[in-house]
Amino acid sequence: MSPTLPTRRIGFRPRATWAGAAVLSLGFLFGSSSALAAPPPANTVIGNQASATYSDSSGTTQLATSNLVQTTVQQVGSFTLDTFNQVTTTIVNTKLGAAGSVVYAPHILTNTGNGSDTFTITVDADNDAFSKVEVYPDANGDGMPDSTTPLCTAAPAAVCSVPAQTVPGNNGTFQFVVAYTIPGTATTPTTPFDTATITATPGTPALYTAPNTSAADKDQVNLTTQAAFGATKSIGVPAVAAPPGAAWPLASTGGPRSSSASCSTTWGAGIASSDSCKYTVYTLTFNNTGGAPGKFALSDTLPSGFTYVAGSAVWSSAPGVALGDGAGGDPAGIDFRVAGSTLNAVVNSLGQNVTQTISFVVLVNNTAVVGTSTTTNVGQYNPTDSPTATATAIGTLGSTTNPAAYTVVASYGLVVGTNPSTAATAVDTVAGTPNGTAADTTTQPSVVAGGSVKFPQTVFNTGSGVDSINLSIANGSFPAGTTFLLFAADGVTPLLDTTGDGVPDTGPIPVGGSANIVVQANVPASATVGSGPFNAVLTGRSANDPTKLDATLDQVTIVVGSLVDLTNSAAGTGSGSVAGGDLGPGPSPQPTTTNSTPAGTGTIFTLFVKNNDAGGPATQTYTLAASQSTGFPGTLPAGWTVKFVAAGGTCAAAAITDVTVARGAQQQVDACVTPPATQTPVTAQPIYFRVQSTAVASTGVLVSDAKQDAVTVTTAATLGATLTPNNVGQVAPGGTVVYAHTLTNTGNQSCGAYTLTATVPAADAALGWTTAIYLDVNGDGQIDALDTLVTGPIAGPLAAGTTQKLLVRVFAPGGASAGATDTTTVTATFTDPAPNCGTPSATDISTVITGQIRVLKTQAADIACDGTADAAFAATPLSLKPGQCIVYRVVATNEGTAPITNIAINDAAPAFTSLTGATQPPALTQCVSTGVTGTALAYAQTPTAVSCGSAANTVAPGGSATLTFAVRINQ
Q1: Which DSSP string corresponds to 66-115?
Q2: CA distances from 823 to 517, 560, 610, 933 (A)
Q3: What phi and psi values does residue 164 have, to the nearest 5 degrees?
Q4: CA distance 654 to 742
Q5: Which is it for strands 945-949 and 913-914: parallel, antiparallel or unpaired?
Q6: Are strands 452-461 and 306-308 parallel, antiparallel or unpaired?
Q7: pTM of the predicted model, to two decimals?
Q8: Does residue 713 surpass a pLDDT of 80?
Q9: Cα dihedral 858, 863, 866, 868 sign
């Protein structure tokens, strides 16, 4: 059976040329070419569908669509080594060395493919002249080894092979350096002394296309007996005398940064570190291991964590004499200049086997970052003679020193206050003594005898490094027998000792960060009702610097009995201070009630408020509140809501904010807790409810009670299916039309067994209209030998998110009149017991015409992109790589009994492809026809669309038009 796919009645007579109409319609369908330019990631599915317009025998314009064809983008590999994507002999590093020296050459491998892969690297000395070759990782890209542990080591005549390194796609990199050791016995200057070939090979060769199956380039090392300079950098007290006026400051490789922004940066009468200003001393050591003296050029640009101290630089050949930072003032033999953060020096003649130094002082700025990121210093120098260099025109410098780092260590500080507060308002005036302000005092109105009270606090890290704060509590005046507990912000998780010093602490707090904690005071039952106020002091100490401390005051106004009780049931459950109980003072350490609900769906908690204040007013009104922690007023998890409603209410009921309870009575209220629809599954999310009187109780203070419940959020179970699309087509008398449908499980549960029916109206059935349903096994949109005729129930299941392709064939009786229509209702009925996936349906409307176009689209791979299909055209899916091509063929055939006119096939380049990047098929094959008279059909192409048609043509029954074109997958 030839494919018959749905067409759509447009319902107007054409008033524009076929080419203009094609371009207009395709513009709406596919947008501009710029929208298609993005390269496709691996496993992208490229789908494409064509259409054809024509006028039927009544002059009505019709639109017919083809089947959908798909191509999956494969992973494709590509990479570069130092910008080269194939084997080359290009020298990318030229290094100069003397006998016995080691030179380093940096390299970078970049994975430019669309997926991760492993790469092996080899280094092979071409003439085996080096005494040793090693490879080191260089993750920071500074051209020097990251450590002293090589990835590989090779003796002469051996190859240094780096184990496979995983490099992510999309321009991920692996940086490394090769270390070449020149034998100490080498004496003859040679250029080159030796070269080496560096080769990178991917671990999955099948992903790569030659010549990008490996890449290689070269390093060259030259041996010299002329001046060969080397330089290193270090921190320490120099061996030479400091500039006049004072000794060198203490030179440390690490310590705190300056705390002041007003430290001196001029030597004057000397410089020394203090509590607020920190200095260190750098020494650049340089030597000549070559065979002749030479002019040595050096430059050092300080990183942002340092400031040069003017007048502090000393050359070892003139100890105790300050170098002139500007024009003039230098001892004979050296030219030294400072411009901003850059220090340049030129030694006029550095003799053979001579070692000299330049030392200078730097301020460790108050903005230096803890660690070494802004205090690692690398100098640059010319390894050979620089005859024309001056300090103001230093010239090209091709080598670098080792990095010399000053490690900035943290200084420590902290503030402890109430929650909420700020570090500025809660800090003690005298360390360890609360400052007496509201920000440093946490007051609770009451505590029940035998109950507990919680104090929310905040601990701030005001130092320059991550710190853990040790916590201790001193009972000032609480009743004898009171105990104190420390909890995390949730009020139930105990704080532990994370530093190993035996003292509970906050755990690490980042610089500038804070941690919320809760102090709980457990008052004994023997405490006298009406007594108070009471206070205690919470003290925090830096775990890294115990001399740094801060304190805050916690106080409660009065001890009361249990004057109000909040429970989940009228009788209550156990003690509010034990497990999940809710009788008496709360909240309990565990939830009393845990409800489960799907995301986005509210759940009801029943609450009972009992007024136990026998000596209080006749009625008491209590405000209702909810929080995710024990602190009130508190917050709820992001997107969550809590609505209080009257007793017996639902989540749709009107909200209330308080409840009034008579003295000695109990009143029910309900709380609707709703997690957001986007909430991921969570187990036992704590929800705390609190009631608090709006008027003072008989004790003269406000009273409250709180309890803990919880919500477990589950994934919403959804059942549902769709049957798409609704189709419109044409059929000749005595002919058939086939409609494609997709049955999709749109829920997150499996749909079970189902039946399929395709029903025509009773009147049409009496005239001879019939239907048949097939399972489209290969998904090609055509009824063929592989497809299964549906004769009974389908066992299922249809898994969540999956589809079943269907084909519905509608037969029109031979006596059907032109213009007659039939509406076939296609229904999938899921037969599992309720709830099930329902009865989705779709309709196929067939109109009897005497001229009928069917459109079939097929595709074939064109790996070489030469415009020629590599295999037979088919509607089955392809799998191709970026940069490869697809050839599409669209055939529109008049399968009716009468001629049709003005046929035009329209198509476009799908997303992630382009027309201009592909070689199109030969012109004689792009637009061909049989059985077509009138104006010849012609091929037309824009940057995004193609067509085959003409403004005035007639297609006889059995005649056809064929459009063939190619696209390239973006790369």
Answers
A1: ---EEEEEPP---EEETTB-SEEEEEEEEEEE-TT-EEEEEEEEEE-SSS
A2: 70, 79, 67, 34
A3: -55, 130
A4: 44
A5: unpaired
A6: unpaired
A7: 0.41
A8: yes
A9: negative
